[in-house]
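Regression check, 3-methyl-2-oxobutanoic acid case 272:
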Amino acid sequence: MTTPWTAARIRATKHQRKLACLTAADFAMARRMDAAGIPLILVGDSLAMTVLGYPNTLPVTMDQMVHHTAAVVRGVRQALVVADMPFLSYQVSISQALENAGRFLKEAGAGAVKIEGGAERVPVIEALIQNGIPVLGHIGVVPQNIQVAGYRVRGRGEEESAQLIADARALEAAGVFAMVVECVPPDVGREITRAVGMPTIGIGAGPDCDGQVLVTPDLLGLFDDFTPKFVKRYAELGKAMDQAFAAYLGDVEAGHFPAPEHCYGGGEGMKK
Ligand code: KIV
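Current build output:
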């Protein structure tokens, strides 16, 4: 019997172990990740791009995120499932943020939510936590701000790195159980990690964060168009899929599939 991961248990890993985290958007992927022992599975709003085909994360809706989160939760037995709060689901008002975050726990069965931003998010984070909703922070590059700030490495230069550390401390004081740190130089990732008492989970933030997270389709090599510098590809599933689809097409067109072993015998059950 394995102990399920909770926000509190993730928080307690600081200085104890490294955390390997991944994103998931569907049941099959989540089930495999969970079986592999991944402790934290993020239903990231990057699914807007990797699953739904949008150009960035902004269009994905609460309903879409709840739908994908519920599918992931159904595949998981022990990982903590964290749902990403989509663009404008927590910025408009605290009461709207509470209702939206509550949907992830009530309707989808998530264990926590993630919110992008620094000190400016403290009031909403405090309100969620006071109402029983654990929060994962997210600083550095915050893709929901792409139209204002673009997608570039953060924390280069003293002013920006000091701001990031101040943001990290503010999130810690607000009560987040961990925080994603995205696209900062490794020394800044290290400084932020030293500055706070809860785990930092880096993505493009160097080796000294307490954990790492990758967007799973990147790690699996599902897309050929662009691989960010911080990604290590652990498989070439895109190429494997191309080969499988081409082989299937060829077999069907040539009449090689189905073969006798794929056909039912008379009067036998479904398995025969
Ligand atoms: O949406 C996402 O996948 C994320 C990761 C980049 C951490 O927020």
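Comparison notes: The mean pLDDT is 96. DSSP finds eleven helices and eight strands in the chain. No diff flagged against the previous build.
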